[in-house]
Amino acid sequence: MKTLYFAWVRERVGKPEEEIDPPASVRTVGDLVRWLSARGEEYAYAFENAKVIRAAIDHTHVKSDAMIAGAREIAFSPPMTGG
User: Backbone phi, then psi, for 11, in 5-degree steps?
Assistant: First the structure.
């Protein structure tokens, strides 16, 4: 699945996007964040405060308990403020 990273998540991971193939045990967005965090120091840094990270599956914002089965694209971004 395609994974996109925005703003400081992208800066910390060091890339704007990548294709990933998580194991079958990764079923939810929260599982995916934990799996990504274990992939290396840069991911651990990007997701160190996972509660503030926003996720979208196929352009729809979701919570960490959302199932990722069938997702074509998952995007991660920090919280945004308006003004």
Answer: -60, -40
The span from the CA of 30 to the CA of 15, in Å, is: 20
CA distances (Å), 48 to each of 15, 52, 53, 58, in order?
Answer: 17, 9, 9, 24
* Four-residue CA torsion sign, 33, 81, 6, 4: positive
Q: How do strand 73-77 and strand 2-5 relate by DSSP bridges?
A: parallel
Give the pLDDT confidence of 23-71 residue by residue, as tens digits.
999 999 999 999 999 999 999 999 999 999 999 999 999 999 999 999 9
**Backbone torsions φ then ψ of 35, nearest 5 degrees:** -65, -45
- Quick: pLDDT tens for 51-62: 999 999 999 999
Give 28's DSSP letter: B
Instruction: Select from 32, 68, 67 the least CA-distant residue to 50.
Output: 32
